[in-house]
Amino acid sequence: MSSLALYRKYRPKTLRDLLGQDDVVTVLRAAASRDSLAHAYLFYGSRGSGKTTAARILAKIANCETRRQKPSFRAEGEPCNVCGQCVVIDTGRSLDVVEIDAASNRGIDEIRNLKESVAFAPVSGAKKVFIIDEVHQLTKDAFNALLKTLEEPPAHALFVLATTEYEKVPATIISRTQRFHFKKIPMATVVRKLATIVSAEKFKVSREALMLIARAGEGSLRDSESLLDQLTSLEDKVEAITVERLIGTVGLARVSELADLILSENVTGVSHYLRNFEDSGFNVVDLNKELIHYLRRVLSVAADASLLDLFRDEFGEDAIATIKTHAAKIRPERHISLIRSLIRAHSEMRYSPFAGIPLEVSLIDFFSSGSSPRVKK
Ligand SMILES: Nc1ncnc2c1ncn2[C@@H]1O[C@H](COP(=O)(O)OP(=O)(O)OP(=O)(O)O)[C@@H](O)[C@H]1O
Ligand SMILES: [Mg+2]
Ligand SMILES: [Zn+2]
Fold it and tell me: DSSP strand E in 51-196: where?
């Protein structure tokens, strides 16, 4: 196994490789191809979505020697990643690319140092690039000092400010930058990148496990990549169950098994299921939440079969087939009230020392209110 963290090893090296940020990529590449980068950018939005990565790519674009020598290459709007400048920037050894973590350097002194450094010409590159991460953390005085620098930057300076908290950046700073919004990365895109990493690293990870990892990241590729890293160092073969254990969440297979018992009106099966589930130490609140989501999906497919296509990106073919079978079994007049009661159970469960009980009561109530309760095998 490699010692370099996966998320660093698979950090995109070109704008083209930045996933799920098409608008950002299009505009930045166009500016790069015309050699008309702005002097200050503000990258804001979701964590782990590529802001710092994009800032470093811009730093390379601004200094790439191949771009300077070959206009035909420059028109591609990308760094070459092989020239001396690209390489020193990639390895974090460039004296002309200054990264400041505003979370730990919040004050006026740091910004004063920065201002002094801005005044000096680049050491070896064409531009001096200042990447200020978590910029919203700066103090008021520091913001004021930064503002002066942004108002009259020397021609050799390029600023990239990054933040997850746009609202905390003063309007005066915002108005002096070109803004780009970084979105959460869609689950299907995360799964695709994880799958590429899995095959490049020759890991063994099941499809359902990948989907759980993608979902757990909540749109942050870094978080999903870190989780994949952690799981593959724990086990040679990663299955959904391992992911479920680690993050304490419940996978689709497990939930659709319960839904199947419910939709088949199998009372005995449901009570066995719940007993086994609690014994295995998983989180029953999570089970209920996933069950609600699952039944909601099945219900929507029953109402409109074309919705199945929406789920194709998110689920494997097996899961799609199961959802379809369940959609044929669901009876809205009976199951909508079940979903309502599960939702009520959810809020009760979160604060209850007997988390399992509201779910169980909900299900018992459902079965006993059934028009024709049957126990199938
Ligand atoms: N859009 C993306 N496309 C491909 N990989 C990405 C993307 N966003 C993040 N990653 C992966 O996650 C890692 C971390 O991304 P990065 O540091 O750029 O995120 P960030 O937006 O700066 O996060 P934070 O808000 O926490 O600072 C990258 O090295 C890369 O592996
Ligand atoms: Mg960052
Ligand atoms: Zn280069």
Answer: 97-101, 128-133, 157-163, 178-182
- 243 C-alpha to center of ligand 3: Å? 40
CA-based nearest residue to 79, from 29, 30, 14: 14
Band (286; pLDDT cuts 50, 70, 90): confident
**What tokens were used for 350?**
């979160």
Q: Probe ligand 1: pick from 221, 223, 225, 226, max atoms within 8 Å of CB?
A: 221
Pairwise CA distance, residues 362 & 340, whole Å = 10
43 CA from centroid of ligand 3 (Å): 23
| pLDDT surpasses 70 at 170 | yes
Task: Find the 1 Cα to ligand 3 centroid distance in Å.
Answer: 29
234 and 141: one domain?
Answer: no
> What CATH number is associated with residue 11?
3.40.50.300
CB of 107 within 8 A of CB of 76? no
Which of ligand 1's atoms lies nearest the C-alpha of 47? 25
The reply to whether 72 falls in a domain is yes
Gap between the Cα atoms of 16 and 13, Å rounded: 8
Any ligand 1 atom below 6 A from CB of 183: no
Q: Please indicate whether residue 21, judged by its CB atom, sits closer than 6 Å to ligand 1.
A: yes
Q: What ligand has the least distance to the C-alpha of 23?
A: 1
Predicted TM-score (pTM) of this structure: 0.79
Reported as a single tens digit per residue, the pLDDT across 59-97 is 999 999 999 999 999 999 999 999 999 999 999 999 999
Ligand 2 centre to CA of 195 (Å) is 23
Q: How confident is the model at residue 1 (pLDDT cuts 50, 70, 90)?
A: very low
- 192 in the same domain as 176: no
In a domain, 31, yes or no: yes
Question: Minimal CA–CA distance to 208: which of 184, 246, 242, 233?
Answer: 242
* Range(s) of the domain holding residue 239: 187-247
Residue 199, domain member (yes or no): yes
Q: Whose CA is nearest to atom 12 of ligand 1?
A: 222
Partnered with residue 159 across adjacent β-strands are 40, 130
- Side-chain-side CA neighbours of 206 within 13 Å: the count stands at 18
47 lines ligand 1 (CB under 6 A): yes
Ligand 1 centre distance from Cα of residue 58 (Å): 14
